[in-house]
Here is the input.
Amino acid sequence: MSERDPKQITPKSEDFDRWYTDVVRRAELADYTPVGGCMVVRPYGWALWENTRDALDAMIKRTGHENMQFPLFIPESLLKKEAQHVEGFAPEVAWVTRGGSKELDEPLAIRPTSETIICTLYSKWIQSWRDLPVLINQWANVVRWEKRTRLFLRTTEFWWQEGHTFHETTEEAAREVETMLGCYDELAVDWLCLATVPGRKTDSEKFAGADYTLSIEALMSDGLALQAGTSHHLGQNFTRAYDISYTDRGNELQNPYQTSWGLSTRMIGGVIMAHGDDQGLVLPPKVAPVQVIVVPISRSNDPENAKLVEDAVEKLEREARDTVRLKVDRREGIRPGEKYAHWELRGVPLRVVVGAKDLADGMVTVVRRLDGEQSRVPLDTLAVQLPRLLDEAHHALRARALKLLEDYSREVSTIAELQAAFADGPVWANAPFCNRKECEDAVKASVHAVTVRNLRADSSADGAPCLACGEPAEHVALIARAY
Here is the structure.
């Protein structure tokens, strides 16, 4: 049996997990490190994260929030103040017990999230109703000691943003939770071209210490769900535990209501799994590090031919540099076909081939990564047409994601129908659901590895019988297997 070519990508249909890892490493997004469970994000992968991060950061600021930064280390005593929170995170917390050669008087947690340190500090800073609302966000790395890791999707150290806000009323906090989930959905849909379902988590799936959690669930191309953003209403659970109080408008002492919300580098994994194919990445144009790759084709032994091509390429560079992220592949000694495959692997949305034969007619060839669609476009107008062509690629990718969601969706009304829906593989099942724990347990027990991902925000059961107990149901549950 011959050894596998290290440059070859495993077909998705053969082994989806291996395909995913092959794409991440071959496309030079990230790789493993000597530190178990941790990854190194390479320049191309970091540029993809930066573009995604910057889009979300603009939304965060647009909605009135400010960025700040909190310490990486959290004293153990702070974590213990909120017992439910500690219980939820305890198995994943990494601890520092020595500083240099000295044993620490108190162990320090490497932040798994920052509610505890933020609450401790804001207990000093919030004194009056005039100090509210507090609307802050932090871009940071966090550590969670995961047992099983996968590049981007689940690593011991990862990067994210975590928003934290404090409000006078629970209603104001609820509006904040909805607003930020809306920002996550805007990012997923309008920037990353994902098919998503927003909704509310069940009590067993909510964030530890929250009153309730909202999420968006994104469909991956293998039919599994990815939790792609969460927004939590924390009520007064943390503000009471950390003694955050203020004098209200009636001169009474109150605890503010709190929210938190976060989105991480796992979204990069989601983009890969939602859109990639056997050739590699298929990147959404708005976040692609390189939106347009230009491949010049000229004969090295024909100086006149080479100059004609290079002049055309330089013209395109000048005219398009301010409107799109364009790169020219001038590498020598590499055949055009190898260059095509190199940039297809990296998911560049558009390829422009500039050759003397097309230039004789004043044209160049444009190839769309998503579907290989080709068109000949006049060189003189290409620069102004590129934004439109990228926009068309964006909408085509989004339409494909929605079609996949339609193909995977199933409507079920009983446990038996749920089991039949999953008999041939993963699906996204929608079912009337009463949201009782006993019924959720029955759903989980009926089909291997399924969970109620959320209670859909866009649907109501209108009293239809719950799929598990038959009692009138208010919610429609999204039921799927998930990463």
Summary: The two ends are 33 Å apart (CA to CA).
